[in-house]
Each structure stands twice: as C-alpha cells, then as structure tokens.
Amino acid sequence: MTWWRDAVVYQIYPRSFNDANGDGIGDLNGIRRQLPYLSWLGIDAIWLSPVFPSPMRDFGYDVANYVEIDPVFGTLRDFDDLVSEAHDLGLRVLLDWIPNHTSSDHPWFVDAHASRESDRRDWYVWRDAKPDGSLPNNWIRAWSDESVWTWDDTTGQYYLHCFLPSQPDLNWANVDVRAAMHETLRFWLDRGVDGFRMDVVHLIGKELNADDPEELRGLSHTPLNDVAVTHEYLREIRAVLDEYSGDRLSVGEVYLLDPERLGAYYGHQDELHLCFNFASMFTGWRADAWLELITRTEHAMTAVSAWPSWVLSNHDNARVATRLGGDQARARAALVLLLTLRGTPFLYAGEELGLEDALISPDQVVDPGGRDGCRAPLPWTRGSDHGWAVEPWLPFAVDAAVRSVESQRSDERSTLHLTKNLLELRHDRDALRKGDLEATHVEGDLLVFDRVVDGERIRVVVNFSRVDCPFIVDGTIVLSSAGEANPGVIRASEALVIELRTT
Ligand code: NOJ
After folding, report:
1. Is the beta carbon of 200 within 6 A of some atom in ligand 1?
2. Which of 78, 242, 449, 482 fits 28 for a cystine, CB–CB 3.0-4.6 Å?
3. Which residues are catalytic?
C-alpha cells in the first residue's frame, strides 16, 4: 500500500507554526492544537522540520541528540501524543532526519574532537594538511566562500563540514556510524512515525581526494555531491525502513537541480521512495519553462519507474508568492499546478494562505543562511498578535492580517478555500492522484496537460500571461483559481481544471 503516492504532505517549520506555551516559539503542543485545522484543510501527512535537541545555530539542522525532543518544542511524551492524535485523524507524521552532519555539541563529536585516540575519532572526517601546508581539497561550504575544512588546534588536523563549522560531517564510510544512524531511525520508527524527510542525503558519500572542478565550486551541481558509494548507504537505509510494516516513507533532499540526476537516487525501488525535485523552485513563471520542466521530469522518472514529487516553497527559499512578486492570482495558479501535476505534492505551511515572506531588517536576521523571511510565523488570527501570545521569534509576513487563517476561513473565495477545494478534488478524482500525464503542451502562454485514468480525463490549463485569452472549454469546469470561470475566456493568471467528456 503505497499511501505516499496518493498523499499531499504539509511541511511544518515547528518554530513558526503555533505556540502553545507562550514563549514566542512554536512547539509540539501548538501543532497538536492545530491538527483539526490540518484535517479540515485535507492534507494527508505532516513533515516536521527538526525538533531534536540542538544549539540552534542552524535552527535544529545541527542535531545534538537524535533521539530526544528539544525542550523548546516539548517532550517525548508530547511527541507521542502528537503522533497518536494525528493518526486518529488519519494524518501521517514524518520527521526530518539529518544524516550528513551533527552539531559540534553532539557527544559523538565532543568525543571525536577530544583526542586523535578517541573511540569515535573516525566517526567524523579528519585530514592532515597537504605536504605543502594547503587544505585537503578545494571544497567550499554552504552560505560562504570559505573552505569546508576547519583546523582543529587541539589535535592538529582539519575536520570537514559542508555547512557551518559547528556542523561537522559524519564519516559514513565508518560502519559504526552507519549502524548508529540506523538505530536513530529505528528509535522513531518504533514510536510510530510514518517516515522521514532526509536532509541533504545525497552528500553522505564523499570522494574526499577529488577537488571540485573550478567552474562547479560550491555545493550545488558538483560531481562530488553525487558519488557512487552514496547509493550503497541508501540501500542500507532503505533496508532499515523495510524492517517495518506500514510502508514507511523516505523522501530525500537530493539537492541536484537536474531532474535527470534524481532518478538514480530511487535505485531499483531499493533506495529513496521519493526525491524532491527542486528545479521547480527555480523555474520562471513561463509556460514554456514549465513545459520543459514537466517533460524532463516525466522522462527522467518514467525511465526508472520512479514516482515524481513537486514542491514550490520550503524553509530555505523565498516563498512562491514572494517569488511571483506578491501577485496572488499567480500564486493561486501555482497552487493548482502543485496539486494537479503527477506526483506527490509538498505544501509548505502558509502556502495554503498565499503567504509571502516577511521583510527582515538587517538587525532581525538570525539565520546564518539569511533565510528568515520564508520562516515567518503563521498568522492564525486577524488581530495584531495573529494568535501568538507574545511577540514571536521572527516578524510576521507581509499582509499577515489579510492572509491570516481567520480572515480566509470565513471567505469562500480565499486562497485557503481554493487550497481546500483542490485537496478535495484530488481526493475525489483518481485521475488527479493516480492518472497518467498526457497531452502536455503549450498554446501561446497557456500550459495544458491532461491527467488520465480509466475513462476519466481531467485537463488543467494555466494562463501564464497577464492578459485574458479566448478559450473554448470542451468539458465541464470543475475548478477555477479565479473563483468563477468566465465563459469563452481564460483570465490573466487563471488556472482551470476541466473534466473532459470521454467517449
Ligand atoms: C538543508 C536544510 O533544508 C537546511 O535548512 C539546512 O540548513 C541544511 N540542509 C543543513 O542541514
């Protein structure tokens, strides 16, 4: 039973979702309180960005203990309650698993760092300087033009960190590291989680002796991101998930922007179940650009019998409504795309509201990667506190009152209701969940595709232009992103979902 092929996954950034204990930071009990909202909306699963103990230098992506809950988010008991209440509502729960690196505060690194003779020295990646005194290789860490290597004075070697110096990379070549990380998966699987989003999982295998080609320096696109041994490690990880019943899911953050390169990470149905297809976040709002992305994705995925996934926003990138210049009509059309393309959609909390990023002044920046804007707290109510008992850890997004859940819930024409309607439609129509993708093409600025299953054919038409276009519908319009369709015309930035007559 591959539930995740049919599912819509909702990403929660826990710090910014809902605050139950009134400290200005969202928490597990805050999420519990909003489970009825998520159930009303109609999503199928939630993925929680990290909730593990962490010094929060990368806001939880620097894990100091893989098998506990950070007190800022609650307790293991709260987590167990969250899982059981979610399950009671038919919602699955995915955790974020961070296999590539730990925090430098993790006891494993504290031990490894203490001496060259430490038991866990080899759990991380240590190297001498080259004979000429230079760095072990030319790799550059994220968010800077600095090296991935930091010199450790205590033990006289460099250690590797693809992200912050306080996020040392684990040495996956060490079988004890692999076994220990597998145990962290089992810990949560035993507690009933339905799977994991796996952070930069394509980085766990490394060819340390190779320099990055000069023109490809940095983390994205380098061949060093994408090495053969990673697939062995992924097969082992998959085997751990397969020890459990219930079809536990792995979705990999494989940060390679070519859909063609993602296929390998599914293996022969023995590696990841799904990979994020991040190219969609960097595709301009043009019919031809989306046609190319969709066509390439379909080819790449069908070539290896893999199931696609789609995403428009997350906690690392400007939200889609912001990328579209705050144009709500376009943001609504983008939601139609996300929720009607073939594959599992990932909806970032707030996207159902058409939320934009917050404007962050230089003194409000807290993230080392400068990603604060897209992490703004969710506005629950219209009033100025937006349902947060104290001022939250980041400012609210632009237009938070108008975009709040409260404002939109009472307005049938809102983006929130559009999202709910789309989710209902997906739920009701096999074609939208399971159907093949056919007849994908552009007509001028219109992108057109069909979803087809067992005599059911649903056509999606998106007008990427800012002008109305004449359009004759050969079927029944079941949804318009503009609220009501206009006969004979597809409006500027409108997306239509049409049930076609089949013979
Ligand atoms: C990707 C995560 O999405 C991002 O937030 C984090 O900073 C890096 N991986 C490092 O873990």
Report:
1. yes
2. 78
3. 199, 243
